[in-house]
Amino acid sequence: MGVRRTAAAAGYRAACACGWRGETRPIDRERLSDDEVDELDTSDAYADWREHLRAVERRTVPLPAELTHLMGELEKQLLVLTERAPVAALKAVTTLERLLPGIGREAAQAVRDDELSWESVGTALGVSAERARSLLSGYLLPRRGLAD
């Protein structure tokens, strides 16, 4: 979530990279000076943004529960490894980076073969149609890996 403000901001709202904008909430200038803007309670805008994310998530294609669990565990273990053995964490990340382009390419090719609309792919991924097209194009293009 981003909070954009200027010295004379009249209000604030949540915003998302997808283009969504939340409700604008006025700033009570009688109770809050320009110097106190950093103390503004933006929890209502944050709640709007979280609800937007939940709505997007409900429209996306669900991942299998086992994969969701495995990804969560992988993230936890990588964070622990980063603290204990950062070079080993980098090795793990490098291994993932080596695996993902091929899997992404196969998945993108299958999506392309299914001839789905960019809108439906975007909705399934929780992104715009333009971003979906960009993602698939990125996976379908050959990539260069890290130098050995």
Describe this structure in words.
The structure is a single chain. The protein has 148 residues and is mainly α. Helix content is 57%, strand content 3%. It has helices at residues 43-59, 65-84, 86-113, 118-125, 129-140; strands spanning 11-12, 25-26. The model has no long low-confidence stretch (mean pLDDT 86).
Give short descriptive properties of this protein.
148 residues, mainly alpha, 2 strands, 3% strand
Quick recap of the structure?
This protein is mainly alpha-helical.
Strand order of the largest sheet: 1-2
Query: What is the overall pLDDT average?
Result: 86
The percentage helix is 55-70%
Overall 3D shape: extended
Topology summary:
Elements: E1 11-12, E2 25-26, H1 43-59, H2 65-84, H3 86-113, H4 118-125, H5 129-140
Antiparallel strand pairs: 1-2
Helix pairs in contact: 2-3, 3-5, 4-5
